[in-house]
Structures are given as C-alpha cells and as structure tokens.
UniProtKB/TrEMBL annotation:
SUPFAM superfamilies: C-terminal effector domain of the bipartite response regulators, CheY-like. InterPro entries: CheY-like_superfamily, OmpR/PhoB-type_DNA-bd, Sig_transdc_resp-reg_C-effctor, Sig_transdc_resp-reg_receiver, WalR-like, WH-like_DNA-bd_sf. The modification 4-aspartylphosphate is found at residue 55. Pfam families: Response_reg (PF00072), Trans_reg_C (PF00486). Residues 132-229 bind DNA. Residues 6-120 form the Response regulatory domain. Keywords: DNA-binding, Phosphoprotein, Two-component regulatory system. This is Response regulator transcription factor. Gene3D superfamilies: 3.40.50.2300, 6.10.250.690, Winged helix-like DNA-binding domain superfamily/Winged helix DNA-binding domain. The lineage of its organism: Bacteria, Pseudomonadati, Bacteroidota, Bacteroidia, Bacteroidales. It comes from the Bacteria. Residues 132-229 form the OmpR/PhoB-type domain.
Amino acid sequence: MDEKIKILLAEDDTNLGMLLKEYLRAKGFETILCEDGEIAYETFLNEPFDICIFDVMMPKKDGFTLAKEVRQINSEIPIIFLTAKSMKEDVLEGFKLGADDYMSKPFSMEELLLRIEAVLRRSTGLKPEDEQEIFKIGKLTFNSKKQTLFDGEEEQKLTTKESELLRLLCLNVNKVLERNYALKNIWADDNYFNARSMDVYITKLRKHLKKDPSVEIINVHGKGYKLIL
C-alpha cells in the first residue's frame, strides 16, 4: 500500500499507551494515541482512521460509549477492545456493540499485532502494509506468492515454511525478527520443538542466500534473527 494503515489508539494508562504506540509504529502502522475517550472522539471526528483500539475503562468517556459514538459516524470501521476485565458480561457487551475483537490485559504485543492483522483481513479489503509479495534481497529476487528465489539465471523453489520465514525476515530487513513472533505467526506455537524446527529452516535459508555473499542472516542472542543487506 502507498499509505500506512492508520490506528486510533485510546488508552489512559500512559506507560502502556506509549509502549503500544511505539510498537505499532515500529511495525509500520501510523498510530495516534489519545489518553481519554473524549479526546479520542474529537480526534476521530477530525482525522480518517482505518481501525480503532479502545481501552474499556477510561476517564471522561469509557471505551463502550466511545465505540457507540464512533459507530454512529462510521458503522464499518473495525474496533478492538482492550480491558483489564475478564467478566463474561463485559465481553458480551463489547461484541454487542460490534467489536471485531476483545483482548484482556495483560497481553503480548505479538498477539495484538496478529489480532490487528486478522481483523484487517476480515474488514472491507483493507490489508496491512506488509502484503508485499516481491522482495529484492541483494542480487536475488524473492517471490513470496510463487515461493521462488531467482538469482538472475536460476530459479530456486522454496518450501512453504521457508517462504513464510523468509518473507518475515524481508519485512523486517536489517531489524530483529523476534523468535516468538515468527513462531506464533508461522507455526502458531512457540514451543521447544517448533523453535528447533525454525532453526533448521534458518540454516536452509542461509544456504539458499549464499549466491549473494553480501546477504546474511545473523543470530541475535536471546531475541531472534536479522536479515542483513
């Protein structure tokens, strides 16, 4: 996409709000943070957004009230609720208001990202910025849809897991791809056996990328991997 997907984030916990904003921005989303429901509503009136993330318990205007007012203006915009509550009636209230998803605190940043991407895929054709299919990796061209790696002369067919993992590395080029995020995104579980499996696929990808010596995948101890171009 030419323009970044824009998120309206309403969260009155200053520390959590800033953490979420910086994380989402790092993942390619334009994110506007509001500290209460009233400010969030005024911001929504004055700027276009693609998705909303509202904390339920906020001063001045709670997340449920905010969602009702937002939906009166735009009945289609996706809304994800964040809450410290886990009571069944609160969850049901959120879905009655047309919530697209509901997350109870505490939650992982990686899980929130996956939920956002899933909601966007289900919404009216909007997709995250990372729907890119063709990647230039040094002298190599990677087609994630066709699962091929082309060096200008020979085309190498990749397995599905190799292609999915290489795509995540490309989307985070020169940045750390967190192990847990990759495991949950591709294997749906970050258990020990899947982690060992991912290590094997990293080794395979390194062999495929040897055709360009300037390209490498490095281990970042305790964090994950980084594709260096």
